[in-house]
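Protocol step 6 of 9: fold each sequence in the batch and record its structure tokens directly after the sequence line. For illustration, a two-sequence batch is reproduced in full.

Sequence one:
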Amino acid sequence: MSVIAIPSSTPASVAAKNATTTIPIVFGVAEDPVRLGLVTSLGRPGRNATGINFLARELDTKRLGLLHELVPTASRIAVLANPTDPVRVTSNIEVVETAARAIGLQIHVFNASTTDDIDVAFTAILRERMHALFTMPDAYFGARRVKLAILAARHALPAAYPLRGYVEAGGLMSYGTSLADAQRHVGIYTGRVLKGEKPADLPVTQPTKFELVINRSTAKALDLELPPTLLARADEVIE
């Protein structure tokens, strides 16, 4: 039996689902798989695909709060978004805007979908005197996490990211699903399908492990004092 396993890519998962209605697919996606058309419902997928939903939208609200806790003087927040999926981006930004209003922050969206766009966005972020950066979950940004971390450091811009890989690359902080744990779930489901279970009968799962990761060296370079309460809740502090 063949199985298409896609640990962490929404575009690839959708492309696979559009390409076949018979080969089993086990996905890892950041967005609602029902809205994406991957499954009929979370409890009973009903088709040839199942997997894990990373809950990116839900976690963005908490991540914004953590950024505010880390940099309480930052009230003007630059949100870096990839506009190539306008429906998804608009929905996610609405969530962040609602969370920002609740804690008195101003959100300004800057779009980027190419390397040149990122440079242009940072120029605009500096021109508009943004106080901090909030990077939306996106595979394109994840692949360019080193560039984003370097630009944020160069311009002394505190930044919050969705995954620990950004912090390992020098970013200030991240909060989100443990990618390793989520990919383990994809592996488990792939094994079950290979043993004969049908994706239609396997409920879409949700993450069980979330990570707050802080880069102490980057905080020092930004002259930020890390709140003891935040450090106590951190899953890892990178020195």
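Sequence two, same batch, same settings:
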Amino acid sequence: MRTIEAQAIQMVDLQSQYQRLKVDIDNAMQQVIDQANFINGAQVKEFSTHLVHYLGVNHAIPCANGTDALQLALMALDLKPGDEVITSNFTFIATVEVIALLGLKPVLVDVLPDTFCLNPDLVEKAITSRTKVILPVHLFGQGADMVRLIDIAKRHHLYLIEDAAQCLGAEYITQDEASVKLGTMGDIGCTSFFPSKNLGCFGDGGACFTNDDELAKRIREIANHGSKIKYYHDRVGVNSRLDTLQAAVLNVKLPHLDDFNQRRQQAAHTYSSQLSEIKCIVCPAHHANSEHIFHQYTLRILDGKRDALKLFLQERGIPTMVYYPVPIHRQSAFVDLIDKNKKFPISDLLADEVLSLPMHTELTSDQLELIISSIKEFFNHE
């Protein structure tokens, strides 16, 4: 029984989620096929409208993927080569990749050891006369300290772009004690609909959202080859469209997003209630203002035991992942762009300690019990 349950555990179980929504998803995709309107079909506009209502923003612009969303956002700001963008050193490569691709200078800042998000004190110290943008990453499903970051951005007259690829649907309490969605507080929010995301399609997809009419206009044009009228191009742009089939899938899934997030939160509560008693484990912390929707459930494993625990679970058929094993400042691609004398002690520490457990909407109580009991078994034999 133990082996059968272990074999069924996946980091992300997309098949079971699909089976729950199969009839509606199949019907939605079949409608696109019947209409044969595969590019910019009606479902894309419908999804944009639905996303606007869900997030409470003025504009949502779907695009081809989350990396493109970040690039479109930066391109819309009309920055100049060498302008500086402050962002996290502990994140997926795409956040920093687009900065470098556009000829901008990534200025990396270390993160907080509890939330893994940008340290606002270090952000303010990193600002120079060339700084134009602060780009926080809402990592693993909860927000960076947006109250502090918004204040810093306003005082220094900087743009604020939110990388919301891992937190779609999470609520944040503002300085005025209003509840808003993460990704809607800065000048532009960016997200991804990669299949494993809390709201995922069946391929690549992404979106930008903003309350600024002019920025929305620019993003739409840039995503469409710099054109608002076909064959007339007002600026240099790119080709970044959300596929109509993917929009159809997202239209079905979006009404379930709050339920998806609640299922993740319930699984996370089970993990934390059982694992927090183990002295070598640090369970995910919650920022005081931010809801956590657990795109990943990421532990810190202390005393150098992370890799041994990972192997122990692997041998029992329980998958885990390390997000992220190499911080940006140690990536070969950025060796010539980063100040070699700058230290990132928290990022280096996290790279050696973090371990993400299976997290998705279909985790069963039996699976959770097996994962937790296996972790306890490992530490009981230490």
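Proceed to step 7 once all outputs are recorded. Observation for sequence two: Residues 154 and 160 are 9 Å apart (CA to CA).
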